[in-house]
């Protein structure tokens, strides 16, 4: 009888041991919540103290007064002891400036807010980026429960250098409703109708930006042969090919060119908020639509002049308050699940159950040599 009780006792101990081991194994598989690591506070206090000594952070990001005000005023309100210097430019301009500076041994910028094409095509090959995740300190930022699909999204294949914090539907067209009826342009080949000869402005597809993304989407949607044919024909239709994203939209609002292919949604939204009038076509009936991060991704520069202030800014930007400020200024949705979307135009928010081409991941960013050659032949200067 004693032996039987001892055997039962040993069995219970073995089962208990297996259960404990199983829980330990599962806990290693689950993403660790930042809220379960109580040691974040000393690290944050040290970074914040050093950031105050550095005195400022230099951020290059989206062009436009609204986003500049949102970033500078929002950050200064949260961290009044750290100045912020914000400069806006399109991605290829940012890359040209950084390359020139670094060739001269100058390191002036801490954080970049730009598109994923800019990050993957220009900055990562330049060797100018640091890994972002080690800089995410605040639990409100690093805890995956605050992010869509319970994950941080990176555009680069290493999941290290380009953090995407916005997914939005990017419109392929804007138009002047006084000159154009939507049913005249709501399919891709309708743009080739003779009535639009010389009346379409194209956002140059060669540099990074929405023109680049729009033409990559057309290549994917139409396939190689049809896309090449469309490229040639739409180039012949164009009244202008331009790189000034604000000017293009103003041309449409003024009626100079009634249709714009490949508009900047971010610039367009800021102009709409300032009373500029034009209409937006979010998708084409025959080939659908696509999602882009636009300027909603960030990069942490290596050899940053203010490395601690850079971490403070990144952590602030990715909090609920920082993302809401960015979302309202850019009229674009955040990937944070606790940031509301009721202030946004409905078309920019991806719809549940709708299949979109995701344009901003690395596998989609690059062009084939063939497509690049065709576009350079048509749009090269």
Shape: globular
The secondary-structure element order is: HHEHEHEHEHEEEEEHHEHEHEEEHHEHH
Question: First CA to last CA: what distance?
Answer: 95 Å
CATH topology of the largest domain: D-Maltodextrin-Binding Protein, domain 2
Measured by DSSP, the beta-strand proportion falls in 5-15%
Q: What do these coordinates show?
A:
With 381 residues, the chain is an alpha/beta fold. It has 2 domains: 36-166 and 294-350, D-Maltodextrin-Binding Protein, domain 2; 171-288 and 365-379, 3-Layer(aba) Sandwich (D-Maltodextrin-Binding Protein, domain 2). Helices cover 44% and strands 14% of the residues. The chain contains 14 helices and 15 strands. The protein has helices spanning 2-29, 40-54, 65-78, 91-103, 116-126, 139-142, 210-222, 224-237, 245-254, 265-273, 307-317, 320-330, 362-365, 369-379; strands at residues 56-61, 83-88, 111-114, 129-130, 153-154, 163-164, 168-169, 173-175, 200-203, 238-242, 259-261, 279-281, 290-292, 297-301, 357-358. Strands 1, 2, 3, 4, 5, 6 and 14 form a 7-stranded mixed sheet that branches. The protein has a 5-stranded mixed sheet with strand order 10-9-11-8-12. A 3-stranded mixed sheet has the order 7-13-15, with no helix packed on it. Helix 3 runs antiparallel to helix 12 (320-330) and helix 7 (210-222) packs across helix 8 (224-237). The longest helix is centred in the N-terminal third of the chain and has 28 residues, at 2-29. The protein is globular, with a radius of gyration of 25 Å. The model is unreliable at 1-6 and 13-36 (pLDDT under 50).
